[in-house]
Automatic annotation (TrEMBL):
A matching Pfam family: DAHP_synth_1
A GO term for molecular function: aldehyde-lyase activity
Protein keywords: Transferase
Protein's name according to its UniProt entry: 3-deoxy-7-phosphoheptulonate synthase
Location of the DAHP synthetase I/KDSA domain: 48-281
EC number: 2.5.1.54
Superkingdom classification of source: Bacteria
Keyword Amino-acid biosynthesis: no
Biological processes per GO annotation: aromatic amino acid family biosynthetic process
Length: 304
């Protein structure tokens, strides 16, 4: 070219993709670093994010004392370490059961006293945080509340560990931003939860984003829990998705279990009965063993 030179782009030139730290720069505190590879959240005598695989199990809603206590005793005997149950229920229909509130929290506390299970339950309003924190060992932020930053701030300041569920239409980046809010408010004990997202495919209740579990375990030091119950909405598919969650690297599961799912006041179609829960737990053992082997090998590699 007259009076100058023309530099043509190289065909097939190597493009360096942004690092995960660059891609999620707004949430740097939740990302792995050389100094911080894994957060372990301690609840009673449990360590979530450590070597042990943690199962949270129980009914969608706390209905009656008999229903909750029978479920708590059963899941405890068959491998669960944490009891889940909703005292406050965010229902899509205003005519659906909304939960017992304080009475439900008291039943959860009774179940903990009888079984030794830790308790996780949802808090829906910043005004309810002190009350729920008084009875629960872990505060669950549900999918509908993931971007309620006022609630996140109040829950973080309670000092209780936070189980943060991914929003139904939230990206992984959105989930990490909400986790960052909790950390910014002085609470490092955040447990992320993949529970399925809404997509164009309406075959199942949600689409289980197993790739998100793999990604979160790769880039974040926070523990990750899989929720196969909400991920599909059909109890017969829950055990298979639970196994997928273990293989993807999840640190635990949260599943819905009910003595008689066909009579459940909410989400009965995705709740396992006792026999189905037992069978699922037995089927997970080989996969959990492989997970433990992988963690041990990774530990040796790090030490070496």
């Amino acid at each position: 070219m007259a009076g100058g030179s023309l530099t043509l782009p190289r065909i097939g030139a190597l493009r360096v993709r942004p690092s995960w730290q660059e891609r999620f720069a707004e949430t740097s505190d939740v990302l792995k670093s050389d100094k911080h590879q894994q957060t372990v959240v301690r609840v009673l005598d449990l360590e979530i994010g450590g070597r042990d695989f943690i199962t949270m199990a129980g009914p969608c809603s706390v209905e009656t004392e008999h229903q909750l206590l029978s479920t708590a005793h059963h899941v405890r005997q068959h491998g669960a370490q944490i009891l889940r149950g909703g005292a406050f229920k965010p229902r899509s229909s205003p005519y659906a059961f909304q939960g017992h509130g304080l009475a439900g929290l008291k039943m959860l506390a009774q179940a903990r006293a009888e079984t030794g299970l830790a308790v996780v339950t949802e808090v829906m309003s910043e005004d309810d945080v002190p009350l729920v924190a008084e009875y629960a060992d872990i505060l669950q932020i549900g999918s509908r509340s993931m971007e309620n930053y006022t609630l996140l701030e109040a829950a973080a300041q309670s000092g209780r560990p936070i189980l943060l569920k991914r929003g139904m239409m939230a990206t992984v980046g959105d989930l990490l931003k909400s986790a960052q809010i909790v950390l910014d408010n002085g609470n490092p004990n955040v447990i992320l939860c993949e529970r399925g997202v809404r997509t164009f495919d309406a075959t199942l209740r949600n689409t289980f984003d197993v790739a998100a579990i793999v990604l979160l375990k790769h880039i974040s030091h926070l523990p990750v829990i899989a929720d196969p119950s909400h991920a599909c909405g059909y109890r017969e598919l829950v055990p298979g998705l639970a196994r997928v969650g273990v293989v993807a690297g999840a640190d635990g599961l949260i599943v819905e279990v009910h003595p008689t799912p066909e009579k459940a006041w909410s989400d009965g179609e995705q709740s396992l009965d006792f026999a189905e829960f037992d069978k699922m737990m037995a089927s997970l053992n080989p996969y959990i063993a492989l997970r433990e082997e992988a963690i041990a090998a990774q530990t040796l590699e790090t030490v070496g």
